[in-house]
Amino acid sequence: MTDRRRHHDMGGLPDSEPVPTREHLFEPWEKRVDAIKALLSDDKRNLLTTDEMRRGIEDLGADAYERYNYYERWISSITNTLLQKKVFTVDELGRKMAEIEARQEDKPL
Amino acid sequence: MSNRFAIGDSVRVRTAFPAGHCRTPFYCRGKTGTVTRYCGDFRNPEELAYGVYDGARSAVYRVRFAQTDLWPDYDGPAHDKCDIEIYEHWLVGEDA
């Protein structure tokens, strides 16, 4: 029966690590991902439900699920869902990412 | 919307393993608990997760389980409980 458990559904597994209860700071990009999600789900846009985002995270596969941190899972799922919904294309996304990367290289840290 | 279950009813979570998104934790499937609250009617996350935003609303219940029923090796106090909010289509009535 255990093999029918989906990877993300790990409540109560004996090898789960304890949940860290200490507050921690978020990176600026993580806050931005949170804001993007809120804007996509608002009444004006209504492009993405939390359920769709959860589904996308669950469908990343066990390997990516373990490798990505919390907001990396979010942005991966958001990206895949928006591609499926034709909000932007793979080509548009690729070009935009290259453009932003080039902008960062021009700017001394 | 008429509710199939009332507070105090004994209910069993369906032993089902759908491949897609659902909100019913694996660890409570097939387990029996008691309805303690009707939480309201909500759209089905199993539809919302796939772009169906206007599906029918369904009753959600808070169901109380004994921890010793959920976990065979539970070593905490015998009266410990676990409350889980579950959509109606995941529940079947148990004869009292």
Describe this structure in words.
The complex is a heterodimer of chains A (109) and B (96). Chain A has 109 residues and is mostly helical. Chain A has a single domain, classed as Orthogonal Bundle (Cyclin A, domain 1), CATH 1.10.472. Chain A has five helices and no strands. In chain A, α1 packs parallel to α4 and α2 crosses α4. Chain A is globular. The model of chain A has no long low-confidence stretch (mean pLDDT 92). Chain B is mainly beta and 96 residues long. Chain B has a single domain, classed as SH3 type barrels (Roll). In chain B, strands 4-3-2-1-5 form a five-stranded antiparallel beta sheet. The longest helix of chain B has 4 residues. At the A-B interface, α2 of A face loops of B.
Task: Give a quick precis of the structure.
Chain A has 109 residues and is mainly α.
CATH architecture of chain B: Roll
Query: What would CATH call the class of chain A?
Result: Mainly Alpha
Mean pLDDT, all residues of chain A: 92
**Total domain count of chain A:** 1
CATH-assigned fold name of chain A? Cyclin A, domain 1
Strand content of chain B: 35-45%
Task: From the alpha carbons, calculate the radius of gyration of chain B and give it in angstroms.
Answer: 14 Å
> Runs of chain A with pLDDT <50, length 5+?
none
Task: Let me know the number of strands of chain A.
Answer: 0
Structural class designation of chain A: mainly alpha
**Number of alpha- plus pi-helical segments of chain B:** 2
Order of helices and strands of chain A: HHHHH
